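This follows on from our talk about sequence and fold. I would like you to pick a protein and set down its sequence and fold. Go ahead and set the record down below:
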Amino acid sequence: MEIGISLGSNCGDRLSNLREALYRLDRADELSVTASSPIYETEPVDVAAEHKDLWFLNAVVIASYTGELEALNAVRHSIEDDMGRQRAEDKNAPRTVDIDIIYANDEVIDSPGLI
C-alpha cells in the first residue's frame, strides 16, 4: 500500500534529525521510500510562549509498505524514541523528531494507538 508520512523537527540539529528519520524509515522492514518533498520551515502553532521561536523543519515522504499499520506505528514510535523524543503532557512540546502516518491508501482506522 502507499503510505504518506510527515516528518518534523524543532529542536537540536533539525536538518540532521529529518535526514536520520528518513534513513531509518527507509531501512524499516516492509517499507520502501519512493519519494520525498523538499524540506520546508513552518512556524510552531499552539505552543507555549517559551517555545514560539522553535520553528519546525518538515518534509513529507511517500513510501510503499507491505506490513500491518499497527506494526508501522510501532516502528515510527521506536524511531522517535531512539532519536531522543521526550513525550510530555504538552502535546505541542518541542521534539527532536515527529513522525506521523498521514494516510495509508484509503484505510480508515480508529483504534486506541492509531487514528
